[in-house]
Amino acid sequence: MKKQLLIVDDDLYLRNSISSYLVSAGFLVDTTNSVESALQVIRLHKPDLIIADIMMPYLDGYDLLAILRSDQLLSNIPIIFLTAKGMTHDRIMGYDLGCNAYLTKPFNPKELLAIINNLFINIDLLLSRRRSQSSSFVIKSKSANMSSLTHKEEEVLFLLVRGLMNKEIALRLSMSQRNVEKYVTRLLKKTNTRNRTELAQFTLSQNINQV
Predict the structure, then answer these.
(1) Angle at CA 54, nearest 5°, toward 50 and 59?
(2) CATH of 134-204, one of 3.40.640.10, 1.10.3720.10, 1.10.10.10, 1.10.620.20
(3) What are the angstrom distances between the C-alpha of 102 and each of 78, 83, 93, 199, 208?
(4) Residue 101 pairs with which residues in a beta bridge?
(5) CA distances for 111 relative to 116, 165, 178, 193, angstroms
(6) pLDDT digits (tens, 9 = 90+) for 58-87
(7) What is the pTM of this model?
(8) In 21, 68, 120, 161, which residue has its Cα 20 to 30 A from 76's Cα atom?
């Protein structure tokens, strides 16, 4: 079943160009030019993911995010921010409010598509975990490794599971991307997993409150 996306941006050209690209990639796409109209669409047809600009008249992207995260029925919708803002404190504000990813304009649409696909992969893993605790033998054999994680390793792990890329984790935790890569390598070793997808799947298969 095709995923339903919603694009919220007052720039008609950007809205249409992103929509065309994502439709060609196999998604269903709705578009709106304001937060007010977006909220109407969201309440009628809850999208699987929202792509929103930050700077818009009246209510902005931060307002949209705050409204959704305070609504129990809508709080789990992943949100990607698109913005011309590049200041670190603006990006941190977005993450603190609960956005899932952040792209600064201009950006490569392939990167946007990669982020979207990665978010859906992690969502599917989470749903799979809720439906069935299959892999119980894996949990038993590796639980000791999880208990040996340092606080910083846990922070990196939980951001990775949320779908953040290394550079976004680095920004969120105020460290270099190289250090994030080192932490990811350690996590793979400690959990005996081969890649980020296996690491996320293994983490989600356990009852860890922070995920």
Answers:
(1) 90
(2) 1.10.10.10
(3) 12, 8, 11, 23, 26
(4) 80
(5) 9, 11, 20, 25
(6) 898 999 999 998 888 898 899 999 887 666
(7) 0.62
(8) 21
